[in-house]
Every structure is written in C-alpha cells, then in structure tokens.
Specification:
Two copies of one chain form a homodimer.
Chain A (H helix, E strand, L loop, with lengths): L2 E5 L14 H7 L7 E4 L8 H12 L6 E3 L6 H7 L2 E4 L4 H10 L3 H9 L4 E4 L1 H4 L28 E6 L12 H11 L4 E6 L2 E6 L2 E6 L3 E5 L5 E3 L6
Parallel strand pairs in A: 1-5, 2-3, 2-4, 4-5, 6-7
Antiparallel strand pairs in A: 1-8, 7-10, 8-9, 10-11
Catalytic activity (chains A, B): Dipeptidase E catalyzes the hydrolysis of dipeptides Asp-|-Xaa. It does not act on peptides with N-terminal Glu, Asn or Gln, nor does it cleave isoaspartyl peptides
InterPro entries (chains A, B): Class_I_gatase-like, Peptidase_S51
Organism (chains A, B): Fulvitalea axinellae
Chain lengths: 231, 231
Amino acid sequence: MKKLLLLSNSTNPGEDYLDWPKDYLADFMSGEFKNIVFVPYAGITISYDEYTERLNGALGKIGLKATGIHEATDPVKAIQNADAIFVGGGNTFELLSQLYKNKLVEPIREKLNSGTPYVGWSAGSNMACPTVKTTNDMPITFPPSFDALSLIPFQINPHYTEATLPNHGGETRKMRLAEYLEINQDSTVVCLPEGTLLHVEGETMVYKGKKEGKVLTYGNEERILLDQDIV
Amino acid sequence: MKKLLLLSNSTNPGEDYLDWPKDYLADFMSGEFKNIVFVPYAGITISYDEYTERLNGALGKIGLKATGIHEATDPVKAIQNADAIFVGGGNTFELLSQLYKNKLVEPIREKLNSGTPYVGWSAGSNMACPTVKTTNDMPITFPPSFDALSLIPFQINPHYTEATLPNHGGETRKMRLAEYLEINQDSTVVCLPEGTLLHVEGETMVYKGKKEGKVLTYGNEERILLDQDIV
C-alpha cells in the first residue's frame, strides 16, 4: 500500500528547518527505519553533503537519520534497499534531470508502489505528480521529459498563495494555474499553501494543515480543502 | 543591422494596455510599416483574435496595425514577408512550443538577423534570448527544447523584482536567478523591472526606463543599470 507524505514546504518563515511538519513526520515515520535514503538533487546553491546534514539536524529531533543517495556507489541499489525515501525541495527541473540521469525514475516508482514510505517537500512533492507542469520553479535546466513519478493521479502546486505583490504585474498564481488547466483540461490541481500537506495511504488522500487548500479543475468551481478533508 | 525592442512587460498595474512603452514604440517604429506580423501564441486564456485586437487597440494610437500570424495560411511566408515582427507575452513554454510546431524558429531568426525590427514583451522578450531558462512562467507544456531565438547573447529576466510576499517562503527571484547562474555559469542575466526595456541596434544595447535594472553574472558583483546605460 502506497504511503506518501507530501509537504508544501520545508520551513515556515522565521521557524527552524522542517519544524512545522515534525509531528506529522514523527507520526508518519513511527516504527523502526534503519535505512532512510535522502535524494538531495534539488539543492543547487547548497552541496549534497550540506543538504543531508541540514536534514539530519531536523530528523535527529524525532530520532531519525537519513543517508544521502550521492554517497552510494550504486544509486539504483540504494533505492532498492531503502526502507524510506525522502526527496527534498530546491529546483524541480534539476531534481527531475538528475533522477533521469541517474536512471532512478522507474526504480523509485516501483519501490514506492510496493509500499516503501515517501516523504517529499516542495520540489519533492512536485516529483510525486504525473508531471512537473505545476511547479513554481525556474526552468534552469532542460530535463528529457516533464513526466515525473506519477505516484498520485493529480498535480500539486506547492507554496500555494493568492497574495500578490503591490504595484507589480505579471501573472498571479491563480492565473498561472488557469493557464495550466486551459492547456491540460483533464488534469486536477491540488493547491497546498505553506504549512499544509497531503497524507496518502493507498487510495486515501487526506489534506492536513491549518490553512485552506484548494482543488482546481478546468471550468469548475474551486473546492476548498480543510484540515483532515479527504481529497 | 539587428533592431530589437525588448520590453519587460506590456502594461503597468492600473494603466492602459501597452501604455507605458508607447513613446518608445512610436520612436522605434518611425517610418512606414505596411506589414507588421503579430505572434499571439503566448496567449492562453485569450483567443488569438482577441489578443490581436487588443494589440491593435494600443497600436492604433501611434498609427500602426498588426496582423495575427494565425490568420496566415503559410506562417513561414508571413514571417518572410513581414516588415516588422511583434511577439506578445503570456506563457513562454506555450509560445516556444508553437514556434517549434509551426517551424518558425529559424525563419524568424533569419528574418531578424537581416534587419527586420522585432518588438517583444515579457514572454516575447524571453524569446529573443539564447534559451527560455530565465522565464518566470509555469512550465504548462513541454517544448522540444529550451533553446529560443538567440538574438542577443545573454538572458533576460522580465518582470524583475526583489520584492517578496510577507510571511511567505519559496525562493525569491534573486535566489532563482542565483540557481540559474550556478547551473549556467558562463551565462549573463539582464534583469528588467516592469516599465523598462532593452533597445538593441546592431551590437549596441541600451537600457531604458525609470527603474534600476541589473546585470547578474556568476560569482560577480551585480551591476546596476540606469536609464540610457549601455548594457
């Protein structure tokens, strides 16, 4: 049974790294995990070692520890031997490119379909979707495809906000997602404001967090998501 | 001699469509232009007809009129016969995809290298760069390449701003561009705040507008651009 924890973001402004989701994480990761594999590929201006260290600083508080996949001589084997997989935020395009380059897309998908727990935040949550077409990130590198892990049947928009900068034009987030739905009319977008997440267990997907989320579809009214709602 | 007018944006908040650049446009387009071809492909939630009409509403004020390329039975011929080419904003990925689909990348490049004036705004300015890797747009569709028209040797970031949303995380624009430069270390990014433009005549590129622009390179201090500065 698929087990996914898909976070909008790692950290709320002014708080410690991965602080807001730590109770959710501890709950999701209850039991013993000897071999948590962390994929730091989305990190660009931070080294993979530093990124893994930063993660372990946060995981240590709930008794967990991860190993960076960049330390493995055979990354595919590292995935196959993992008893949980964590994928961190950063740049979605670089993350996806590295997953393809290291031939990890299929191995991760198979591993997660067999029930290994997955925790992703920001770009790591985009990765769980059919495609990366609803990322907020800048396309700083060209991946061989926009197809991602397809662990869930809809798209996530992380860091979702309807706030706009005063006296600045450019598209709002809602306009961007309306454009996405115009081009991809059969798709559904789940909007996760910062500090919210989706908890997937098999076919059941539960929205969690204090802020209101949204489900957007082409031409339809938007549906509001509240804490503990089934998506 | 190459002649390009590359605008950050069409319209400042609260103003009429294409109002802020109208004096620059009138100056750039002085003389007689019988056959201005407009490429509306970046428009997603507006039809190509509506987009062309909106443009002509603005161009009429300075005595100009454009024809949408979607009306041409042979778009390549339409480009070859144009005496000016306008490319409007919207979604960069859809615009680039349609240029490839309609086999227009090479014909437009050739035409502009031979001296036909080009006016682009927002996504239309991204198109003039070597790649679309510094667009702010959502990757709602997968183009066959991120390579664009390469009319200038550097990247533009349109709608540039250093403002951030209060109490919202996610990467700032500066962080996104720093990530771009980390992955593309030989590249240069010219940041155009709204209400500013680049005016290119042959090898001379002049920055114009009231707000401060910026030139960003990997590892270097940023260079400030003021009105009439040579880039």
